[in-house]
Amino acid sequence: MLPEKWENLVGDIKDDFEVEEHKKEHSDEHGGTDTEYIIFKGPLGRTKLEFVTKPVVLDKKTTYSGRIGSETKVEYVYSEDEKSNKLIAYKWSDAEEDWVEIDTKNFAE
Fold first, then answer.
1. What is the DSSP letter of 92?
2. What contacts 48, CB < 8 A, 6 or more positions away?
3. C-beta separation of 38 from 7 below 8 A
4. Alpha-carbon gap, residue 31 to 52, rounded angstroms
5. Which residue intervals of the chain are DSSP H helices?
6. pLDDT-derived band of residue 105, with 50, 70 and 90 as boundaries?
7. Rounded to 5 degrees, what angle do the CA atoms 14, 92, 100 make?
8. Phi, psi at residue 16, to the nearest 5°?
9. Strands (E), 1-109
10. Edge to edge, what strands does the sheet with 33-42 contain?
11. Which end of the chain is more exposed for a tag (fewer CB within 10 A), N or C?
12. Per-residue pLDDT at 86 exceeds 80
C-alpha cells in the first residue's frame, strides 16, 4: 500500500467510525522503522490497522567460522533512499484478550 492510500484510508476511518487511538512510532532498529496505527470500532468490531515503513534490505552479510560451536553473525545493509510499506490488520479477540492478525491476502489494493 502506498503512503497516499494509507492517508486516505485513515481519513475515511476518522470520518466514518469511532477512533479509539491513532499514533505514530519510530524505532531505530533494523535501519529505522516507522509504524503508524489506528484503532477503531468498525463493522468487524474493534479493529487495528498498522502501516509499517522500513528501509529496503540491499545486502545480507554472514560472518561465520568453520569451527564447531562458533557463532554466526548476520549483518544487513539497508537503503537510505528506498522504503517498503506494509499494511497489517488485526481484530480484537475477546476470547484471547489480544489482537489477532487478519489474513489480508484477499484485500484489493
1. E
2. 37, 38, 39, 89, 90, 91, 92, 99
3. no
4. 13
5. 3-16
6. confident
7. 115
8. -105, -20
9. 18-27, 33-42, 45-63, 73-93, 98-102
10. 18-27, 33-42, 45-63, 73-93, 98-102
11. C
12. yes
Q: How confident is the model at residue 97 (pLDDT cuts 50, 70, 90)?
A: confident
Q: Give the pLDDT band of residue 12 (cuts 50, 70, 90).
A: very high
C-alpha cell at 101: 492478525
pLDDT digits (tens, 9 = 90+) for 18-77: 999 999 999 888 778 999 999 999 888 999 999 999 999 899 988 887 778 778 888 888
Q: Is the pLDDT of residue 107 over 70?
A: no
One-letter amino acid for residue 59 of the chain: D
Neighbours of 64 (CB within 10 A): 10
Structure-block grid coordinates of residue 23: 499514533
